[in-house]
């Protein structure tokens, strides 16, 4: 595979820049059957997502999944689509912009924050190319997934490494693996719940619904299940909730194989049948509201609860552009940027200037 032509190097003496790439899963470009089909094809063709022999899965995907699921999913996307576009893309874009402002307020004024999608647009590869053209030489990749999974976070690493296989001058890379137990993330979740309770009262149970994955992934060593459990324990401790008040479950089951349990829909159905009057539901594994939270949890699962006798169903929105979460992201990012010269205040500029002058003097001596 030939290497690609590199952009021209920056002019001598121009300091290289740092960037944060906030990567989310992705979304169709429009709530239409063709757009959803393109998105699903890319997403479901990833061997990290579906671990079935490629030849077998290709037949299933093209003959059974895409022809039927594309139209069904398009109708669901249409139900949550906003005037600005896909909720996931809108909120991720806001997070990136606000995170850049939060970092600047902390003194990191020479850091760009950009949004990318693993599937769909803006494509991760295109974003990395754009940063290369802008002479960004230090990149921190921040997944929008607090809990690590081979089906999500590892897929981002695959895409990053595959992209740079054809690049000669690779930037310095740092990768945030997870932040499921980071104090800033747990605090942002807790304050989100407390703010909601202060406005709407407190339910009988708090249900944490995480996205599901096949149980087989846990048996083969994926830490996702354990990290979800730890997030739940830490949040329960922070909120002062005992095991009888906080319930953890998994949503979005697909296919006939066994997935992580307990499943969200049957769980809330049983709560309603047991006489639980009100439940509050939140999705800590999603940092931006999306189809899985707005349609599946806030519509389908709501119906599962109320149609089985439940009286009050409250959905607590994702962290989205909540100021507590923006501050939390800044704290997480700041930890991972340690050692990078990103503070361009007066003192840092003087240090940078002295280093540049010393480098020029050394070069002049070598040339003499």
UniProtKB/TrEMBL annotation:
Pathway linked to the protein: Porphyrin-containing compound metabolism; protoheme biosynthesis; protoheme from protoporphyrin-IX: step 1/1
GO cellular component: cytoplasm
InterPro entries assigned: Ferrochelatase (IPR001015), Ferrochelatase_AS (IPR019772), Ferrochelatase_C (IPR033644), Ferrochelatase_N (IPR033659)
Catalytic activity of the protein: heme b + 2 H(+) = protoporphyrin IX + Fe(2+); Fe-coproporphyrin III + 2 H(+) = coproporphyrin III + Fe(2+)
Keyword field: Cytoplasm, Heme biosynthesis, Iron, Lyase, Metal-binding, Porphyrin biosynthesis
Binding site for Fe(2+): 211, 292
Compartments reported by the entry: Cytoplasm
Gene Ontology biological-process entries: heme biosynthetic process
Major subcellular location class: cytoplasm
PANTHER family: FERROCHELATASE, FERROCHELATASE, MITOCHONDRIAL
The protein, known as: Ferrochelatase
Protein's organism: Massilia forsythiae
Lineage: Bacteria, Pseudomonadati, Pseudomonadota, Betaproteobacteria, Burkholderiales
């Amino acid at each position: 595979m030939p290497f690609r032509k590199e952009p021209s190097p920056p002019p001598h003496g121009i300091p290289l820049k740092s960037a944060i790439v906030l990567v989310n899963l992705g979304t169709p470009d429009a709530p239409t059957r063709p757009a959803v089909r393109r998105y699903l094809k890319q997403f479901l063709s990833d061997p990290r997502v579906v671990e079935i022999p490629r030849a077998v899965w290709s037949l299933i995907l093209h003959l059974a999944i895409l022809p039927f699921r594309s139209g069904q999913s398009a109708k669901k996307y249409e139900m949550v689509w906003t005037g600005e576009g896909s909720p996931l893309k809108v909120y991720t874009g806001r997070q990136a912009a606000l995170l850049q402002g939060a970092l600047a307020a902390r003194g990191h004024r020479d850091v760009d924050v950009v949004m990318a999608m693993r599937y769909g647009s803006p494509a991760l590869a295109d974003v990395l190319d754009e940063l290369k053209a802008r002479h960004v030489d230090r990149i921190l990749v921040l997944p929008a997934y607090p809990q690590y999974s081979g089906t999500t976070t590892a897929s981002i690493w695959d895409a990053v490494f595959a992209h740079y296989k054809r690049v000669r001058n690779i930037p310095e890379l740092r990768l945030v693996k997870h932040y499921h137990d980071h104090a800033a993330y747990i605090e942002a979740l807790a304050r989100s719940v407390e703010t909601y309770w202060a406005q709407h009262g407190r339910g009988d149970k708090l249900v944490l619904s995480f996205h599901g994955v096949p149980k087989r992934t846990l048996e083969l060593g994926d830490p996702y299940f354990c990290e979800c459990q730890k997030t739940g324990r830490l949040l329960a401790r922070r909120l002062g909730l005992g095991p009888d008040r906080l319930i953890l479950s998994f949503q979005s089951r697909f296919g006939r194989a066994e997935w992580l349990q307990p499943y969200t829909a049957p769980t809330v159905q049983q709560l309603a049948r047991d006489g639980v009057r009100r439940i509050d539901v939140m999705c800590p594994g999603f940092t931006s509201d999306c189809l899985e939270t707005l349609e599946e949890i806030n519509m389908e699962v709501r119906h599962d609860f109320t149609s089985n006798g439940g009286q009050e169903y409250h959905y607590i929105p994702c962290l989205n552009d909540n100021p507590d979460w923006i501050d939390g992201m800044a704290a997480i990012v700041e930890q991972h940027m340690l050692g990078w010269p990103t503070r361009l205040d007066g003192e840092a500029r003087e240090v940078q200037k002295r280093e540049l002058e010393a480098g020029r003097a050394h070069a002049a001596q070598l040339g003499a």
